[in-house]
Amino acid sequence: MTDKLLPVIDPESRFFWEMCAQEKLMIQQCEDCGKHVFYPRSICPHCMSDRLRWIESSGRGRVYSYTVARRPGGPGYEKEVPYIVAIIELEEGVRMMSTIVDIPIEEVRCGMPVQVLFEKVTEEITLPKFAARLEG
């Protein structure tokens, strides 16, 4: 059990969380317009089609934006401050919010290449997080 605030698993996101537990980062792709979609949903936000399929993301991306949290964002985060909350733009073009780990705060930059890694928090929740990666 954790005292951290955790995502709520709903029917649209259940598969995403199940795959995170297997260390696979899944996003959706519309079968009609071909665009990638994240966060999990039942309707494509680009063309309103309901024909979305799951695909595995490369897990590679770049820091689009970030902030340094110097105060805990809720119960259970006191020991982690300061930490980096970031918007990551994946190679597939979608953006997702996450945290950046395993790098000194002062080295984080917008545009920095990152790679997904996974942190098991509870039996049901494994969080995708990102670490710096070498180009290539």
Describe this entry's structure for a reader.
With 136 residues, the protein is mainly beta. The chain has one domain. It contains one helix and eight strands. The strands form two sheets. Strands 6-5-4-7-8 form a five-stranded antiparallel sheet. A hairpin with a 5-residue loop joins strand 7 and strand 8 (126-132). It is globular.
Keywords:
136 residues, mainly beta, 6% helix, 38% strand
Helical run tally: 1
Tally of structural domains: 1
**Largest sheet strand order:** 6-5-4-7-8
Poorly predicted parts: none
Pairing-aware structural class of the strands and helices? mainly beta
Largest sheet: 5 strands, antiparallel
Strand content: 35-45%
Mean pLDDT: 95
SSE string, helix = H, strand = E?
Answer: HEEEEEEEE
DSSP summary, beta strand count: 8
Radius of gyration: 15 Å
Question: How would you describe the shape?
Answer: globular
Helix content: under 10%
- Kindly, what is the distance between the CA atoms of the first and last residues, rounded to a whole number of angstroms? 38 Å
